[in-house]
Design a protein that fits this description.
Radius of gyration: 14 Å
Strand content: 25-35%
Order of helices and strands: EEEHEHHEE
Number of helices: 3
Strand order of the largest sheet: 3-6-4-5
Oligomer: single chain
Helix content: 25-40%
Shape: globular
Number of strands: 6
Length: about 130
């Protein structure tokens, strides 16, 4: 049983692709570094946001699995986007990518617009915190 529990009060707007609150009990914390669409050679792959999002999320989940976790263990995720309007325009596709790779156990999330990321070609970066049983 996961130590992560999602809370979505009826008094708040229905969440779409995130949870309003997440509690975590016991377990071990895993702090996941920001991941972009870097391949194993350190090159950004994908020209469009959905491609880069899929690679960045895959990289985050690879790090999580290496630490002994699974997508359901994610308690908090922050997405940094260089173009929030582009992110909003692709939100349906990004949601499908999330569900395909991480399932429907949504962490507490935020999307933050940034001027640029470390790698100039990167359009998105994702970091997170997980709680392992």
């Amino acid at each position: 049983m996961s130590p992560v529990h999602r809370i979505n009060p009826a008094e708040l707007s229905p969440p779409a692709g995130f949870s309003h609150a997440v509690t975590a009990t016991g377990g071990q914390l895993v702090f996941l570094a920001g991941q972009t669409a870097l391949d194993q050679d350190g090159k950004v792959i994908g020209a469009a946001l959905p491609e880069q999002f899929a690679t960045a999320l895959t990289n985050l989940l690879t790090a999580l699995r290496a630490a002994g976790g699974a997508p359901a263990d994610l308690a908090r995720v922050t997405v940094y986007a260089t173009d929030v309007a582009d992110y909003r325009a692709h939100v349906g596709e990004l949601g499908r990518i999330w569900r395909q790779l991480a399932g429907r156990d949504y962490p507490a999330m935020a999307v933050i617009g940034v001027a640029r990321l470390w790698d100039e070609q990167a359009l998105v970066e994702i970091d997170g915190v997980a709680v392992l049983p």
